[in-house]
Amino acid sequence: MLKLVLDNPDFLVLNKPCGMPMHDSAEAIVPMAEALFNVDKLWLVHRLDSDTSGCILLAKNKDAAAEFGKQFAEKTIQKYYLALIDSKPKKKQGTIKGDMKKSRNGDWKLSTDNDNPAVTQFFSFVVKDPLQAPEINTEATMRPALRLCMVKPISGKTHQIRVALKSLGSPIIGDKRYKGTPSDRLYLHSYVLQFTHNNEFFNASCLPQTGELFAKHLDSFFTQHAKPWLMKWPTFKA
């Protein structure tokens, strides 16, 4: 279910569950949040794919909606995502950049053009499977290496992170659309939103509520990587 992360007179930050849609349904996030948190009207100021979980910002009035919309457009709101992959990416960290082009059946693909590029920065870390005993770690028995990616999208394009990781040969686990390994959910989660409002800084974060792989591996990961804003991200130049 929807869980409250931050409550402010002008906005809510909520932890959206995997599978909750943005639009066109009584179960969409806005009507559900209005009913659950007793708010007359909420405004969407950004979006998450239905199967992506995590932090989402909703405005409580038109002025706040306009302000946050401007901040997203100007790329001053910082976003950090968690993603799990199980195939070795072409590179372990860096920047993925290119125009998003429509493909078949509602898919998107990354091109080499840079007219209006999607820009995605990431680090990937191998995580150990606690169920895999060291004595059976042979070429024949080893499972694909599980990697947890900390992802920072600079832009905000549809399916951007999913397409970026797919372009590296490493689709997200559970991503049916982009040929990820079948699993119990899409392993993509909006972990942190950082923004200012009325000259006050907010750092909103939340952990996934579902996902066997997230439950198994996040504790060990966060002993070292709980604060992604402190990582040495590449300098972005528009």
By DSSP, the count of extended strands is 12
Question: How many distinct helices?
Answer: 4
| CATH topology-level name | Pseudouridine synthase
> Going by CATH, what is the homologous superfamily?
Pseudouridine synthase
Question: Which bin fits the share of residues in helices?
Answer: 10-25%
Family: Belongs to the pseudouridine synthase RluA family.
GO biological process, one term: enzyme-directed rRNA pseudouridine synthesis
Organism: Glaciecola nitratireducens (strain JCM 12485 / KCTC 12276 / FR1064)
GO molecular function: catalytic activity, acting on RNA; pseudouridine synthase activity; RNA binding
Can you describe this structure in just a few lines?
It is built from four helices and twelve strands, in the order ββαββαββββββαββα. It is of the alpha+beta class and 238 residues long.
Secondary structure elements and pairings:
Layout: E1 3-8, E2 11-16, H1 29-36, E3 43-44, E4 53-59, H2 62-73, E5 78-85, E6 93-98, E7 100-102, E8 108-110, E9 118-127, E10 146-153, H3 160-167, E11 188-197, E12 200-205, H4 212-225
Write structural notes for this entry.
It comes from Glaciecola nitratireducens (strain JCM 12485 / KCTC 12276 / FR1064). GO terms for molecular function: catalytic activity, acting on RNA; pseudouridine synthase activity; RNA binding. InterPro entries: PsdUridine_synth_cat_dom_sf, PsdUridine_synth_RluA-like_CS, PsdUridine_synth_RsuA/RluA, RluA_PseudoU_synthase. This is Pseudouridine synthase Rlu family protein. Residues 10-166 form the Pseudouridine synthase RsuA/RluA-like domain. The protein has a single domain (3-230), classed as Pseudouridine synthase. The longest helix has 14 residues, at 212-225. It is built from 4 helices and 12 strands; from the N terminus they run ββαββαββββββαββα. The termini are far apart. The chain has helices spanning 29-36, 62-73, 160-167, 212-225; strands spanning 3-8, 11-16, 43-44, 53-59, 78-85, 93-98, 100-102, 108-110, 118-127, 146-153, 188-197, 200-205. By secondary structure, the protein is an alpha+beta fold. The protein is globular and about 45 Å long. Strand 3 (43-44) and strand 4 (53-59) form a beta hairpin. Strands 1, 2, 3, 4, 5, 6, 9, 10, 11 and 12 form a 10-stranded mixed sheet that branches. Strands 7-8 form a two-stranded antiparallel ribbon.
